[in-house]
Amino acid sequence: MTTSKPLIVPVPLGARAYDILVGRNILGEGVEQIKKLGVRKVALVTDENVHSLHAERIIKTLADNGVDVAAPVVVPAGESSKSYAVLAKTCDDILATRVERGDLVIALGGGVVGDLAGFAAAIVRRGMRFVQMPTSLLAQVDSSVGGKTGINSSHGKNLVGAFHQPSLVIADTAILDTLPERELRAGYAEVIKYGLINSERFFFWCEENWQQIFAGGPERDEAVAHSCRAKAEVVVRDEFENGDRALLNLGHTFGHALERIVKYDNARLVHGEAVAIGLAQAFRFSARLGLCAGQDAGRVEAHLKSVGLPTRLQDVPGGAGSVDAILDAMTQDKKVKAGTLTFILAKGIGKSFIAHDLNKADVAAFLMDEWNS
Amino acid sequence: MTTSKPLIVPVPLGARAYDILVGRNILGEGVEQIKKLGVRKVALVTDENVHSLHAERIIKTLADNGVDVAAPVVVPAGESSKSYAVLAKTCDDILATRVERGDLVIALGGGVVGDLAGFAAAIVRRGMRFVQMPTSLLAQVDSSVGGKTGINSSHGKNLVGAFHQPSLVIADTAILDTLPERELRAGYAEVIKYGLINSERFFFWCEENWQQIFAGGPERDEAVAHSCRAKAEVVVRDEFENGDRALLNLGHTFGHALERIVKYDNARLVHGEAVAIGLAQAFRFSARLGLCAGQDAGRVEAHLKSVGLPTRLQDVPGGAGSVDAILDAMTQDKKVKAGTLTFILAKGIGKSFIAHDLNKADVAAFLMDEWNS
């Protein structure tokens, strides 16, 4: 295995500061950084898919470099592992490795593993350090950065969890070569989200370069590093989501509602696809409210379509539920504050903002039109 | 109901500072303080026993004072509720009340409810504020103060949890009048622990006044307030248990092992009883190592006995397991660091200290003698 020098994105969170390493085949450099954390023993959590593809090589590299890794904790692949039951088993399996306070949990996998293992690390022995090794594009550009961890409840997605910052993130972009095309596309929805939030330039660059990002050229590293930097900037301003961090939820209020309606069935809809529809909807809703040009909403939708992402309620296989069902699913979202609806809307590409106290009737009317369009 | 002025013990933890109110019939004052927190809605968690004894009156008082309380979340009484399953149900039940971030969880009950509901508050919506209303002596003097929350794992007690400080603690000592004698005694083990840690004077005062503490005189309020102050001082020095806070574990390394061996069966051993045996053992072990006078160990044991608490392995109904079983149970304790044993030992009454790197063989020999004594 060749090892190259990674791009380094610092996340300056004071006592909880950490670095994100981004690049192709950077495991060697990653292991050096892990050794600097001064751990005695490592509990590695991964899922069945990642385990068969990557775990052996990674554990061997760690062991060859003198890091004591316990037998890996392997959970079933898929969103259904973000459950109370799998959390309980993961915590018990970590405890069974006899890691102690001050030791390390490594989350090797996509967003599900990162959220689950990160949450387990937050609560086993009332908090252990952990390192994210994200293996999906979605996890590399979004869920592994910022310290949000958690599981789903029957009441909604990510409603149970903790803010627990990793000690290090190792985003090896070569690992994405083994990712199914659909997963890559889904992660890409979060990449262009950063352009839509506050960088028209990055969105335009994505329109030009998306094929190289998918193909694994240096543009992929650039896109991942830019996304991490963009997210880190927001997280540093608002670690515990009392304000600005909500911007990162662009496309997610609609998106989470859809995921809830399909009961997190990945066969029908994965998170990034729900976000893609949510992004397109956020822009169409903004245009409908006269906040942004219809042209911008059209451009967002066109780009999402060109990479093969869904953009409409009608694109949800098996249907997206009634307007009432979607509204109800939205009001149990964490972003609800004192009964009013909060949305992230846009005045144009790269000009998103937090809109409080939105009129529920306006949302309902918009959804009705979406259904009839 | 008459309402009196409480004693106030401040816990100065910076952004997480809070007050502990201690006194007889102080609910009225407590509600005033809750209102000052500016909450919209309250989810109250309690257990079946406390629910039938106290919940109705407390909910009515809150409601009469304009605090919106959802239907209470009621869990089974007893240590077995500190489980993954009851935690999951508690989180879901709290979510079902549709409380939002910024709202409040109230933990009304003993140590189990406080640990469980506090942990649920720590993780529902990635952290909600909560108020402790401890209804047992144990909870008033120990578990409700300091922010440790959590549940048990098959690997050991409190191995899964969070540091999550309450926003307020309301310790109504009149509520202890309804407590079974055994529970009062068990809580009292934690009271005298504070004397044994660093205040010979408080231990002597307890020897003189324990009957008034049990009877519910003003000495009870004094003992609870002193205990809270003593614990708060340690917690403020070391919120996340990286050092001094371990002193609070005096009697707990042996105690937790015994609880584990009886599988947390309260019929055989409640936490305070395990601590009582652990306290006596910590002093006998200290005496055996030549650290403290045998007279001190004798005096500790005599006082524990005089209030009716157990002090010997032989006092555990159904047996305390073999020496090997006890040792094994101890090494999975959170206080194990890099494979060596850490104990809280004493150079005398009120002169406890943290002893690192204890020789396991010495502990084994001590336990063997204990069995044969």
UniProtKB/TrEMBL annotation, chains A, B:
Residues 73-185 form the 3-dehydroquinate synthase N-terminal domain. The keyword NAD applies. Pathway: Metabolic intermediate biosynthesis; chorismate biosynthesis; chorismate from D-erythrose 4-phosphate and phosphoenolpyruvate: step 2/7. Zn(2+) binds at residues 190, 252, 271. One of its GO terms (molecular function) is 3-dehydroquinate synthase activity. Its EC number is 4.2.3.4. Its cofactor is NAD(+); Co(2+); Zn(2+). Binds 1 divalent metal cation per subunit. Can use either Co(2+) or Zn(2+). It catalyses: 7-phospho-2-dehydro-3-deoxy-D-arabino-heptonate = 3-dehydroquinate + phosphate. The keyword Iron-sulfur does not apply. Residues 187-336 form the 3-dehydroquinate synthase C-terminal domain. Keywords: Amino-acid biosynthesis, Aromatic amino acid biosynthesis, Cobalt, Cytoplasm, Lyase, Metal-binding, NAD, Nucleotide-binding, Zinc. NAD(+) binds at residues 111-115, 135-136, 148, 157. It comes from the Bacteria. Its main location: cytoplasm. Catalyzes the conversion of 3-deoxy-D-arabino-heptulosonate 7-phosphate (DAHP) to dehydroquinate (DHQ). Belongs to the sugar phosphate cyclases superfamily. Dehydroquinate synthase family. This is 3-dehydroquinate synthase. It comes from Hohaiivirga grylli.
